[in-house]
């Protein structure tokens, strides 16, 4: 990175709770400067106070393009550049796809996929002009595998995964890195903040079971966001960072299990799959 040896300037979305808040604290502890953003920036007053001039705050709703542009401009006005963008803001709409319906499905995509894409689009020209920078996409294990009842969230995160993988390939030659973070279950406000949909009895044994399991997980998620953020900082500091960083035993085990099943199916049906060549 061309700013080696200097502090980094971060722009982070969704900083009022969870990973976003912990990222601000970790960046501060690393001696960096941060534009911390939230839909209600007054929730960030303690971070600004703690930062003593190294944390600035701005209103940023990822579903509002004008607020995204204003926050990017504010970051440049205050700190002069952006070294690390973290697309962290997120929400969970729970329910079987029929229960979710089109309106809530679009709302989920507006936050998880189009929100992250909106902020990325506003920041990429800045990073390209600088000739360096890193984009951190907070995805999920649920961006790599799926669960009944998580169809809206999973599919929006899968879209984010595809978008981010292409972005990484397009930006690497320009000196810009992309890190996709894949957390398992972490003890943040994420579960508490979820939007639940009216239940249909037809989905009791599929999405309904996931609803119960998710409710039971509240405040007993197995992973610590402070440790998650420490791992992200370590990966960012590495000379050879991964494209994807899984976080948590549940994430590693879940993805392994999913890929083993995927490969087993490819093998089982391989002969038929290979039977389509013209000659
Ligand atoms: P959280 O609910 O504590 O934090 C999410 C933040 O995003 C909140 O502060 C919320 O206000 C904000 N937000 C929601 N909609 C927004 C919008 N339109 N504009 C701006 N901000 C908005 O949960 P978290 O776990 O810290 O979530 C952070 C990221 O981690 C999310 O992208 C989430 O999908 C991802 N993630 C979390 C978990 C987990 O188990 N906690 C697992 C996998 C992935």
Automatic annotation (TrEMBL):
Annotated CDD domains: 17beta-HSD-like_SDR_c
UniProt-recorded name of the protein: NADP-dependent 3-hydroxy acid dehydrogenase YdfG
Keywords of this entry: Oxidoreductase
Naturally occurring in which organism (per UniProt): Kribbella orskensis
Record carries keyword Mitochondrion: no
Protein family membership: Belongs to the short-chain dehydrogenases/reductases (SDR) family.
Transmembrane portions of the chain: none
